[in-house]
Write a structure and sequence with these properties.
Blueprint (H helix, E strand, L loop, with lengths): L9 H24 L3 E6 L5 E6 L2 H14 L4 E2 L3 E5 L2 E12 L2 E17 L3 H16 L3 H19 L7 H10 L1 H14 L1 H18 L2 E6 L7 H5 L4 E12 L2 E3 L9 H20 L3
Helix pairs in contact: 1-9, 3-7, 4-6
């Protein structure tokens, strides 16, 4: 049972009232911790500009408070997930109260935009890379042509000379040992090209190390479906489930919950609210 869902039950109405305050204060906290600051960045053409971002560490510290202040709850801690430029930071915790499980899921979904650090080193590396590409513009195509020739030649030597060209390449790429052997032959035949490729890879690696992540989100509350759909925003869900023969059940019959258990459930939810209220910066 999701706390906050529409109900006529007196006990759940009482919990919903606390949850309303939790949602309100959680959103305020997310708005504060994702407040924008300006950051100077460099674009791919070496120009610089100011962009807005926020400090994701603020959210990490905030979410970490649920783990540190709910020691009796089971939690895997603050976790990050990434899908290209879409990121998520979240924590899931649960508390067993008799035959019931009270669970908490707080999350923030946001996007990452990459820029370069606004330093001279970036310009120097980009210049070296451009010169390397300009001075060796035909070498890589020659390398690929020679590679194709050697692949066909070697496979013909092995008795595959009657196979169509496409099938020869499929055979090559599906035979790891053969692929490694022929690649070494190609590299040995064109050491200069291999050296240029290695230099390019090294320059790209150095440029990657100078990338700067900036963050963007929308300070609104979203539900599980919007989270799955990749929408930006914060989520704070509290659920109560009944354990029946080892399986969790979402349908709760409050008439069989004793007063002591009800009190513990209510205290658990109030604790969540207090953590949010006590952690304003």
């Amino acid at each position: 049972m999701r706390i906050g869902n529409t109900t006529n039950n007196e006990f759940f109405l009482e919990l919903n009232k606390i949850n309303e305050k939790i949602q309100e204060e959680f959103l305020k906290k997310v708005m504060y911790e994702t407040r924008n600051v300006e950051c100077n960045v460099m674009l791919g053409d070496s120009t610089t500009k100011n962009v807005e971002t926020f400090d994701i560490k603020n959210i990490e510290i905030f979410f970490g408070c649920f783990e540190s202040n709910l020691p009796e709850w089971n939690s895997q801690g603050v976790t990050y997930s990434a899908d290209e430029d879409l990121r998520r930071i979240f924590i899931k915790s649960e508390l067993k109260i008799g035959n019931y499980i009270l669970s908490l899921h707080v999350s923030l979904q946001y996007h990452v935009l990459l820029y370069y650090k606004p330093i001279q080193k970036v310009i120097e590396l980009q210049k070296k890379l451009a010169e390397l590409i300009d001075n060796n513009e035909n070498s890589e195509s020659k390398y690929e042509d020679e590679g194709d020739r050697l692949i066909i030649e070697k496979l013909n030597e092995l008795g595959f000379n009657d196979m169509p060209k496409q099938e020869l390449f499929e055979l090559f790429y599906n035979d790891e040992k053969l692929a490694i052997k022929i690649k070494k032959m190609i590299d040995d035949s064109q050491p200069k090209v291999v050296d240029v490729k290695n230099q390019k890879n090294q320059l790209f690696k150095e440029l990657d190390n100078l990338l700067l992540e900036t963050f963007h989100t929308t300070a609104i509350l979203i539900d599980e479906q919007k989270l799955v759909n990749g929408e930006e925003g914060g989520l704070c869900n509290i659920d109560l489930e009944f354990i029946d023969n080892g399986a969790k059940q979402g349908l709760i019959d409050t008439s069989i919950i004793d007063e002591e258990t009800k009190s513990q459930i209510k205290q658990g939810i109030e604790k969540i609210l207090n953590i949010i209220l006590e952690n304003y910066s």
